[in-house]
Amino acid sequence: MGMRSLWKPGPGGAVAAALMILLAWALPALGDDANLPVPRFVTLRSEEVNARAGPGTQYPIEWRFTRRGMPVEIVAQFSHWRKIRDWQGAEGWVHQNLLTGRRAVVVSGIMRTLRRRASEDASPVAQVEPGVIGRLLECDPGWCRIDVQGYRGWLKRTELWGVYPGEKIE
Fold first, then answer.
1. Is position 45 within any domain?
2. DSSP state, 169?
3. Which helix H or strand E contains 14, and what residues bound it?
4. Gap between the Cα atoms of 92 and 61, Å rounded
5. For residue 89, how far is the Cα from the chain centroid?
6. If you write DSSP's letter for every residue of 45-100 in order, what string do you get?
7. pLDDT value at position 122?
8. Could you list the residue range(s) of the whole structural domain that residue 85 is in?
9. Model-level pTM?
């Protein structure tokens, strides 16, 4: 027994079908993040992400980011392309599919002490080097709780890159 179509185009149906196909194609390109604020922090989805000089594959590759899960800041967007900046200031355009809404931070400055509680006198959990990436779990006004390779603890917000001043993360 053959399959029958449940929808048959009537007069003008070809136009309606073409519009439906166009809409189905265009909606994924807009992405779920099209209405989110700019700037905002996200992370890289892949081990290798090409950052281009402009928003499209016709533009040359300027950078190649090679750290999956690295936090980056979206500073502009055009269609399904996002202009990102890393913690060292490198910028470029990447396709939105190469980014994820997960949050992470980079430890900045010098060797830092990850603490059991959000307090300078709290017992240490681990020492973390600058440039280490941690998964962002929560932030209060002065401290953020992160996970670095299974070690969970608190660092001062000023010791991290990837979270805005005053931003609350729960």
1. yes
2. B
3. helix 13-30
4. 8
5. 16
6. -SS-EEEESSSSTTSPEEEEE--TT-EEEEEEEETTEEEEE-TT--EEEEEGGGEE
7. 98
8. 40-102
9. 0.79
Query: Which amino acid, residue 101?
Result: G
Kindly state whether residues 112 and 142 are assigned to the same domain.
Answer: yes
Q: What six digits make up the tokens of 29? A: 């390109």
Classify residue 134 as exposed, middle or buried by CB count within 10 Å of its CB (0-12, 13-18, 19+).
Answer: buried
Please check the confidence at residue 37 and state whether its pLDDT lies above 90: yes
Total domains in the chain come to 2
**Do 87 and 111 share a structural domain?**
no
Q: What single DSSP character describes residue 158?
A: G
Give the residues across from 95 on adjacent strands: 81
CATH number for position 121: 2.30.30.40
With beta carbons less than 8 A apart as the criterion, state whether 170 and 138 touch: yes
Residues 97-148 have pLDDT tens digits of 999 999 999 999 999 999 999 999 999 999 999 999 999 999 999 999 999 9
The pair of structure tokens assigned to 50 is 């090409």
State whether 47 and 97 are in the same domain: yes
